[in-house]
Give the backbone structure.
Amino acid sequence: MELMHYLTLAAILFSIGFYGILTRRNAIAILMSLELMFNAANINLVAFNRFTTPDGFTGQIFAIFVVVVAAAEATVGLAIVILIYRNWRHIDADRVNLLKW
Amino acid sequence: MEQVVFYLFAFLIISSALAVVSLKNIFHCALFLVLCLFSVAGIFVMLHAEFLAAVQILIYVGAVAILIIFAIMLTSKLAGRDPIMTNEMTFIGAFLALILVFSLVYSLSNTFFRLADTEPAPQSTLELGKLLMTEFVLPFELVSVLLLAALIGAIIIARREGN
């Protein structure tokens, strides 16, 4: 398989996550779409690592860091979602407007 | 053979990702997210990144997906579907996502990447461990501090005040 196949797959996955973030109302569904976009970025990093510098591992190291940061993001994001649910009894991102002006 | 496996994984990834962003029941979305993450791990194996595939399954499927499922169970009723899952941006969002994917694929196919024709190193896990302990030791330690900060922050945010 060539590099272009993997990049196209990652582009499609990224766009699907982008669509989910734009259109979902449930905050947890938005976070799930965000995970899709992180995975698309990881596929890109590993594919470039495999096809342009197969004897180095910098792309894979970056992908590991992306995974760790995504885990931290999911933890804090879901804690905020649970706090919003406790105070508002819903997690509809369109109706959570504390930070809007 | 490799092509067949790649297209199988690509089909699984794209169809389950579409299910994640379009299904009505949020719990089914989370289950399809698990399928999508597993298939991405398969793609990593095809790219000779075995350690990353293991990390993907351990952290994403084992931790993040379980965390998301717990959050769903704490915030919504599992029985019955949510009638309004999407906002009024559906068509605009689909249009923008299509523009994004076409422009990305167009620009990628018009870019020249200098490819190497050497074979990948056979033991990626060993080399990754060495790199993490030598060249990338500072970001490695920093990311552990970040994880600790996220852990404490999540506990403080989600804790009930007053007791």
In short: The mean pLDDT of chain B is 88. Residues 131 and 137 of chain B are 8 Å apart (CA to CA). Chain B touches chain A through 85 residues (CB under 8 Å). The first helix of chain B runs from residue 2 to 22.
